[in-house]
């Protein structure tokens, strides 16, 4: 018999039945009054839960499109952008901004570490930056940036907008837009929201909306705030066809969040992450991310000596768990394990147990049950 496969990569994450059901609903016209009501409710909930006086945009696309949307509506050719990069996805902003003719300065950390706050501050003092980008959780390293502290710093610079990539963080790591001085928060549907891939989500705070006004006509069409603002205010209007079933799916995800309580959800993510990380370490793995800056949404797990990445992930797949490989210099040296969104204790225990079986099968001596024991002890605390 085939073993059911748990998809424990950092996105897409497991999609629970009630969300799948929304995807399976009969698609209605985008002018359907019930759909319009659902869309509007979703928009309102998103603004309330992430605490902004600004706007939210929920349109068809992916996280990368939301990155592009954030840049397109706040910066023009010739502007200065400071990119604080903690890895592969931080670096993605470089090419994106370069293509638009934006002047880019980059501060990169070693993978697994963060850029120190004082380094960001002294860079911001050097010249007038129109924006700074920070990746909340860089999926390539499993590092979580101190988003709140950076926000306090950036706020001292009047012309500088604060753009946060929350694609692997939002709905798992705490984010309060106005309180944290975030001007643009971007994300996608398939990570900590636990929805299938396909939605580009972006919040724009009041300062970002003002910046958009100042830019006048921008070169981009589909991602222009001004095209979508009338629709987000009144979804009965048309600009481009909304992804009807995905909107419903995200609405169900937000209902799950409201039912759990967003603060409880954040607390659950911390508890789960620390338990998963303790379990992995008890099996002899090491984690790439600095202990003080570990994400709660995923873990980037370095192999012990004697494990071949391709073989391990193949055997782990046979044991019923899919994980992702390492990126760039860490390809072959590490696997990436997502533990965000709507996963439960069954998913976590099964994942650690499958990792133990895979280790055993590739010839690593580890006491069976050790990781599962650690995990359960941590979760029962
Ligand atoms: C996944 C991810 C992206 C890219 O999102 P897509 O939906 O794959 O386009 C961007 N930034 C971060 C931090 C990510 O984890």
TrEMBL record:
<keyword id="KW-0808">Transferase</keyword>
<protein>
    <submittedName>
        <fullName>Alanine--glyoxylate aminotransferase family protein</fullName>
    </submittedName>
</protein>
<keyword id="KW-0663">Pyridoxal phosphate</keyword>
<comment type="similarity">
    <text>Belongs to the class-V pyridoxal-phosphate-dependent aminotransferase family.</text>
</comment>
<keyword id="KW-0032">Aminotransferase</keyword>
<dbReference type="Pfam" id="PF00266">
    <property type="entry name" value="Aminotran_5"/>
</dbReference>
<dbReference type="GO" id="GO:0008483">
    <property type="term" value="F:transaminase activity"/>
</dbReference>
<dbReference type="InterPro" id="IPR000192">
    <property type="entry name" value="Aminotrans_V_dom"/>
</dbReference>
<dbReference type="InterPro" id="IPR024169">
    <property type="entry name" value="SP_NH2Trfase/AEP_transaminase"/>
</dbReference>
<feature type="domain" description="Aminotransferase class V">
    <location>
        <begin position="52"/>
        <end position="330"/>
    </location>
</feature>
């Amino acid at each position: 018999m085939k073993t059911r496969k748990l998809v424990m990569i950092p996105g897409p994450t497991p999609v629970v039945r009630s969300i799948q059901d929304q995807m399976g609903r009969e698609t209605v016209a985008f002018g359907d009054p019930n759909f319009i009501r659902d869309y509007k409710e979703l928009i309102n909930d998103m603004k309330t839960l992430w605490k902004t006086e600004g706007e939210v945009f929920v349109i068809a696309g992916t996280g990368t499109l939301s990155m592009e949307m954030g840049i397109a509506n706040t910066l023009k050719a010739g502007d200065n952008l400071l990119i604080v990069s903690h890895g592969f996805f931080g670096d993605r902003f470089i090419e994106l901004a370069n293509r638009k003719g934006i002047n880019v300065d980059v501060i990169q950390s070693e993978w697994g570490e963060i850029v120190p706050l004082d380094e960001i501050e002294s860079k911001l003092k050097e010249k007038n930056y129109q924006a700074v980008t920070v990746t909340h959780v860089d999926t390539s390293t499993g590092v979580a940036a101190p988003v709140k502290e950076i926000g306090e710093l950036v706020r001292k610079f009047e012309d500088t907008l604060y753009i946060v990539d929350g694609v692997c963080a939002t709905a798992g790591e705490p984010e309060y837009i106005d309180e944290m001085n975030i001007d643009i928060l971007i994300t996608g549907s398939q990570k900590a929201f636990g929805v299938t891939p396909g939605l580009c989500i972006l919040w724009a705070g009041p300062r970002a909306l003002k910046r958009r006004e100042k830019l006048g006509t921008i070169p981009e069409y589909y991602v222009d705030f001004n095209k979508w603002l009338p629709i987000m205010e009144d979804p009965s209007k048309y600009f481009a066809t909304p992804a009807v079933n995905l909107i419903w799916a995200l609405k169900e995800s937000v209902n799950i969040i409201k039912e759990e309580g967003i603060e409880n959800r954040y607390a659950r993510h911390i508890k789960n992450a620390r338990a998963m990380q303790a379990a992995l370490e008890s099996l002899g793995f090491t984690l790439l991310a600095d202990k003080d800056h570990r994400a709660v949404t995923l873990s980037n797990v370095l192999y012990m000596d004697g494990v071949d990445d391709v073989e391990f992930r193949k055997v782990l797949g046979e044991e019923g768990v899919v994980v992702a490989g390492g990126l760039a210099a860490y390809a072959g040296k590490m696997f990436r394990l997502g533990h965000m969104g709507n996963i439960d204790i069954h998913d976590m225990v099964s994942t650690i147990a499958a990792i133990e079986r895979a280790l055993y099968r590739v010839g690593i001596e580890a006491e069976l049950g050790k990781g599962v024991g650690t995990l359960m002890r941590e979760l029962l605390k």
